[in-house]
């Protein structure tokens, strides 16, 4: 539907965005993950060996966990990716300079810690490890953190403006784990990733994504060095309240309802929400307005158009 409405060009181009993507150099390592997960023509395997089966987008895929119930000695021998190796970033600096010369800001995703760990191990098994087998959980989390920190360091060295990090650590009712567990197992590792980047480029901005109600973690995220919080999901957090409490220390990306307004509201509802967000969260700056996640297939075209028109009308301060 989008391709038809946009006349065959990408929606970003149709709505006037100048966005260029770039990628890392391919890995030189040849790894066979078939011994860890079943792989068929419907399965895509990422660099971590995680299988994504079925569906056109990650949200709709079955996740195949390569580490499953493997013992620690086998996890130590697992072929982790080389995303922390310098050769993977050999062309990033030149591409970054090219984009800067076009007047564009640059950003890249360095990785996740919690999400990658449970993608590899399985969520239930990861939490069991944390509670009953800390040697295994700490090895896995440290190994992932080493790789993500190395990626962050190379991206900072390429002079990127924004380091993107993220972990869905919350549900709509609250965090997936106790705040104390998050502070013990994940906060210090996140802090190490951010520190690795800022040791190279002290002024790099840090963007952090987590869906859900992350209210209890926001002060800690600020302490780790996060500058931009995404998506401030309005179904479970009041964006105006988040701005009031933390707007002197954070900027915000998102805030527009993806579960209610965009799919089920009218174009007038969309315009009203954009106006409200600009009057509250956008007050005095610090807001990049956007839907709170990827638009789903049931989003009416008229609401997409209404969003962009409303941004043009109300989205400046």
Characterise this structure:
- Helix content is 42%, strand content 13%.
- It is α/β, with parallel strands linked by helices and 317 residues long.
- The chain has two domains: 68-229, TIM Barrel, CATH 3.20.20.210; 231-317, no CATH class.
- The two termini are 33 Å apart.
CATH structural class of the largest domain: Alpha Beta
H/E element sequence: HHEEEHHEHHHEEEHHEHEHEHHEH
Backbone shape = globular
Task: Return the structural class.
Answer: alpha/beta
- How many domains make up the coordinates? 2
Strands in their spatial order, largest beta sheet: 4-5-8-9-10-11
Total number of helices: 14
Tell me the distance between the termini: 33 Å
The CATH architecture designation of the largest domain is Alpha-Beta Barrel
Oligomer: single chain
**Can you tell me the residue ranges where pLDDT is under 50 for at least 5 consecutive residues?**
none
Largest sheet: 6 strands, parallel
Q: How big a fraction of the residues is strand?
A: 5-15%
Please render the helix and strand layout as text.
Layout: H1 2-5, H2 11-14, E1 43-45, E2 51-53, E3 62-64, H3 72-76, H4 92-101, E4 107-111, H5 114-121, H6 123-132, H7 134-157, E5 162-166, E6 170-171, E7 174-175, H8 179-185, H9 187-200, E8 205-209, H10 218-224, E9 228-230, H11 239-246, E10 251-256, H12 261-264, H13 267-280, E11 287-291, H14 301-314
Parallel strand pairs: 4-5, 5-8, 8-9, 9-10, 10-11
Antiparallel strand pairs: 1-2, 2-3, 6-7
